[in-house]
């Protein structure tokens, strides 16, 4: 089974990140007494747009493969299924936590709950 990133989830995640960056930048400028606090909005938006554009080619190619015994991701990251302690969802991400405490993210899933369920069903 292959878990591939979804472009729509990538755009949604970065849209929320941009909204947070815009609000955060405006708040910081307002708190320091800058009379042009509104400039934080376009600055936050621009920062996230540039970041999203720059990382898109890498993030949208990151695939995870699950076999009967392992979960293999980019890098390559190899996680034996019998070493997985927890599977969590966070927005469009699925977090894999191993018994050793290592954490891995399967990013930008269209249906993170379905990804989580598929991994949990494969666990020994």
Helix-strand blueprint:
Blueprint: E1 2-3, H1 7-31, H2 40-59, E2 64-66, E3 70-73, E4 77-80, E5 84-90, E6 93-98, E7 103-106, H3 112-122
Antiparallel strand pairs: 1-2, 2-3, 3-4, 5-6, 6-7
Helix pairs in contact: 1-2
Protein name: PH domain-containing protein
Transmembrane segments: 15-32, 38-56
Keywords: Membrane, Transmembrane, Transmembrane helix
Describe this structure in words.
The protein has 124 residues and is α+β, with helices and mostly antiparallel strands. It has two domains: 2-59; 64-122, OB fold (Dihydrolipoamide Acetyltransferase, E2P). 45% of the residues lie in helices and 24% in strands. The chain contains three helices and seven strands, in the order βααββββββα. The strands form two sheets. It has a four-stranded antiparallel sheet, with no helix packed on it. Helix 1 (7-31) packs antiparallel against helix 2 (40-59). It starts with a strand and ends with a helix. Keywords: Membrane, Transmembrane, Transmembrane helix. The chain crosses the membrane at residues 15-32, 38-56. This is PH domain-containing protein.
């Amino acid at each position: 089974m292959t878990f591939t990133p979804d472009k729509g989830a990538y755009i949604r995640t970065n849209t929320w990140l941009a909204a947070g960056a815009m609000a955060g930048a405006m708040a910081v400028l307002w708190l320091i007494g800058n009379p042009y606090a509104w400039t934080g909005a376009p600055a936050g938006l621009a920062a996230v747009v540039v970041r999203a554009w720059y990382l898109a080619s890498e993030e949208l190619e990151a695939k995870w493969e699950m076999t009967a015994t392992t979960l293999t991701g980019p890098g390559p990251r190899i996680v034996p299924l019998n070493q997985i302690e927890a599977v969590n969802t966070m927005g469009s991400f699925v977090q894999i936590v191993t018994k050793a405490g290592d954490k891995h993210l399967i990013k930008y899933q269209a249906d993170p709950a379905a990804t989580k369920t598929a991994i949990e069903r494969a666990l020994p």
